[in-house]
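Hi everyone, sorry if this is the wrong subforum. Our group has a chain we'd like a structural model of before ordering constructs, and none of us has done structure prediction before. Sequence below.
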Amino acid sequence: MYIKKLNLQTMKRTYSDIDLIRLSVQDGAVCLDKQFILLDNFDDAVRQNDAETFFANHPVKISFVTVIFCLSGCIKFQINLQNFELHSNDILIVQKGTIGEYCGMSNGTRMAVMAFMPEYFQITNQIEATMSLQRQLYVSPLCHLRQEEFEECMTIYRLMKAKTKQKYTPFRKGALYGYVQVLIYNAYSYLVAAEVEERKPKERTGRKQELYNRFIKEVQKSYTKERSISYYANELCVTPKYLSQVIHTVSGRFAGDWITDFVILEAKALLKSRKYTVQQVADMLHFANQSFFGVYFKKAVGCSPKAYQEEERW
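Answer:
Right subforum, don't worry. Here is the predicted structure as tokens:
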């Protein structure tokens, strides 16, 4: 796909609600049954302004698995409140249900994107490996590869692109599934190796760091229903005061701030999808009523949910 060919008006109308069907109709998209899509700008260097017509400039909830390969340049994203920069030979794997936000791209960036339904992500007869990989990706979805490893990924990507373009081939889906399995196995081995390497200089993460990690996982799991520090302290078997102190010591931010950020990030994504009213978003996030939600949102964002939803971002 040549990102510079994307239509700005089309993106204004559709991209706030990201799904594979909408993605598949973009100029240059190579897709199979609108469930497996490949996009790249290998032939033309992407420009900064053009990139913003492809990626949304506000939080969006992804309804499919996305793999972004950076061949050169720099791409910035925020994934579940964590900031990531992709440089040459970096891969970002974003799982379904993730809330992400595009934060910028350097001129001359060359990239490739794979988007597919989660069933392609399952490793046959290796459920434990699949679950282990997914847990690691929630913590660290960015992986830097050695040159030969990245070249192998690009070789597989090009094979998938060629296979997807073939007409009237009855086994295309099976072949693509096989290619994805190879990429997933490779990703698993890369991430495991990186995790082992990272542990070497600091075998002891410390109890406070471990508590912080467990807290973030609990918040990611329950923030749409639970917003009180006491709930998470109870889940982690510590007092609210101790939990707040540890989280602040480790991250420089209070536990309540982390909870609020996750709630607001979800609220922004739901509002900007334009599929739900403010009342519906308040209900989905388990606020007592719309007024309660409005006060909570305005205190964190500086404007009302309605104003944020209607704000022109393009």
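For your construct planning: Confidence is low (pLDDT under 50) at residues 1-17, 45-51. The chain has 13 helices and ten strands.
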